[in-house]
Amino acid sequence: MAKQRIVVGLSGGVDSAVTAHLLKQQGHEVVGIFMKNWEDDDDSEYCSSNIDFVDAAAVADVIGIEIEHVNFAADYKDRVFAEFLREYQAGRTPNPDVLCNAEIKFKAFLDHAMRLGAEKIATGHYARVRQNGATGRFELLKGLDPAKDQSYFLHRLNQAQLAKSLFPVGELKKTQVRQIAEEIGLPNAKKKDSTGICFIGERPFRDFLNRYISKEPGAIVDERGRKIGRHEGLSFYTLGQRQGLGIGGVKEKGAPRGGGEHAPWFVARKDMAKNQLVAVQGHDHPWLLSHRLQALDASWCAGHAPAPGRYAAKTRYRQADAPCALTQGDAGHFGLEFPDAQWAVTPGQSAVLYDGEVCLGGGIIETVDAAPLNTPEKIAVSA
To answer: Which is the catalytic residue, given 47, 100, 301, 359?
Structure first.
């Protein structure tokens, strides 16, 4: 690759640090940018932004590059956080990391980098970009470390964004990244990977949501509509959730025995109209299994939907690729059918489509077809 001016998003973590080092080694003119995306509770014990900037600045010093601190908090609140709250209030479970990549890291940050005269941007994501020799189009590929692949979070990137993006650590395994960091004496070589949503940090999730979403407690019911507990508000629960239901292994006399007397309870559905949370017993309860889904707000890396046919998909991060058929697809929506039932497919999450190692794009899960039950009473629920 010809020598270029490349702006690297330095997060304070080891992956972006090694990204900057590798590009500098290749002879590029490298500039670091630290993105501040959240500032509502900067001084709290949960916000690590200040510590991360100190780490990023120390990395820039060791590598020998300039670093700039840029505040995208207003953009983040408008484009990512507002949507995050809207989705939770509607009873869905959004993935803010997907939206953050599409709206902040590869839009606001990319625009800022271009104003600085950058030819490319780079981040520490475990993914790869390849230009297809036959079509000239840019393709998003999985990272070579299957345990760290982050293409799922990047599936909304378009041709213009992919053409300007580099992911050097996507060619490496995480162990190699740590080794490089130690060899060149990076101060954050052993820093733990960040977990969770950036603006929530390590704090309890429900405590955080309580500050922005009003509680509307209601009944937890089983699949026959019988009350078995009480929820704190539908927004605080997600499909497949087992912890925090407060009903343990209790089973009412005469309840269906499909899950066993003391099988754990799982969130299966939300009835927004009745403000009821529906829980079922047993990990493999039919209401937790789906063969079909419909997704909206589709985004395809190639700029158009792939042809209907056989592919693989993930309906959540850290899930093995599941064989599926794309039944229909256009710029706005698509349907997927799975020969093997998928567990706890969750509206609001992303369904991401793959053709081998190529990430084709995806969309937001809107509806799923949980199996019906032949029970005397059925309750009207919205999944």
So the answer is: 100
